Amino acid sequence: MIVDDDPSTREALAAIIGEDGLTTATAGDLREARIQLVRQTPDVVFTDLKLPDGSGVDLFEDLDPRSGVEFIVITGHATVESAVSALKMGAADYLVKPINMQRVKAILSRLPRAGDLKAEIGTLRGELRRMGRFGLMLGNSPAMQTVYDQIGRVAPTAASVLLIGESGTGKEVAAQTLHELSLRRKHSFIAVNCGAISPNLIESEMFGHERGSFTGADRQHKGYFERANGGTLFLDEITEMPIELQVKLLRVLETGMFMRVGTTKELETDVRLIAATNRDPEQAVLEGKLRLDLYHRLNVFPINLPPLHERGKDVELLAQAFLDELNSRYNTKKGFPQAVREMLGSYNWPGNVRELKNYVQRAYIMSSSDSDSTATVPLQISLSKPSAGTAVTIPFGTSLAQADRQLILATLDQCGGVKTRAAEILGISLKTLYNRLVEYGEDASKAAVGEGGEVSESDHENP
């Protein structure tokens, strides 16, 4: 069903939809649309937001949410607010006038699979009850069941998702699950860590570049937005993206258009964006790390991933899954002794699921034989809460830059110079930590030296 007060728009949409072998009904206002709904429930509704007798979103309330009808909203006002509001209310996607007919075709190509997708999500809910699994995610704690419910609701839509959680909580796995349960699952899923790309190269990596556009550009390069066309682009550590590039990212999200570095030719992309951060996004806005307008565009559907210490019995469930994977890979039959199981549940796991997985791998390696139980490997004390006497005192009036410096160097010292662990505790990427240490120079070199004057293991890592 097509609801629009502009006859030419109705005719153009009906023609393009008819090419796909679909029948159409049309209406010029809400009254006519409601008459059509009484006659027959459509599979898809294309509706203008601004109609002579009200808003197209009023039609959402006229249909049972369980009917499976997909809503595509149309707006002549290319504002972020109108599109975001419609997506939050349940629209599957949106179009901006003048309507791009290629985008209509792309939307139609995805919609017929929506029914199958809803059935699959229902199957996954049953799998969760039986095994504690949901797609690629594992755990059956109440906190994770809330996450699964949110993912199940938003995955089939076109809404942007913002994943918020501490380092190591599984944000990329959550993003992959969102993609696998979406209408884009047959297309690419590309994950990008914004904090791991040099600020000088990130624009080229995102949007691509033409041959000769800068020194070293000896060939044309397709960026992430071009390679992810039709699929999902996951931007991890979004607050590490340079502010000037965030402006260009916002434009792509609003218009679907971008330009490769070194050309003025606009290219089109159809990408579903999932972003993630281990910071409080509102605090990041206040600190100038994230543009407010971009935050509103990304924050259509926020999902908070709980830290591991809030997931109860999931710790043991995850540890056993990691051990089962190792046993399967190396054809062994190792298990956890009771003492290890008790220790797993009593530890705080500040490094979250990533730390737990690393621990299981160490314990597996330390066990002596193929059939032996895994060894009781001491947990890294440097990751637990600081002991008495390790607090950092920052006098009133200290600049933020100097306070950052003191905190980073003190944390690195407490971690014995191991940069990966210091970065996890500080909630920043390893790349960001390296950049700060380069700025701090000689003081940082002293903090990165472990006991006995030996350089720590992290000094051999590739930045």
UniProtKB/TrEMBL annotation:
The modification 4-aspartylphosphate is found at residue 48. It holds the Pfam family Sigma54_activat. Residues 137-365 form the Sigma-54 factor interaction domain. One of its GO terms (molecular function) is sequence-specific DNA binding. Residues 1-112 form the Response regulatory domain. GO terms for biological process: phosphorelay signal transduction system; regulation of DNA-templated transcription. SMART domains: AAA, REC. It comes from the Bacteria. Keywords: ATP-binding, DNA-binding, Nucleotide-binding, Phosphoprotein, Transcription, Transcription regulation. Gene3D superfamilies: 1.10.8.60, 3.40.50.2300, Homeodomain-like, P-loop containing nucleotide triphosphate hydrolases. This is Two component sigma54 specific transcriptional regulator Fis family.
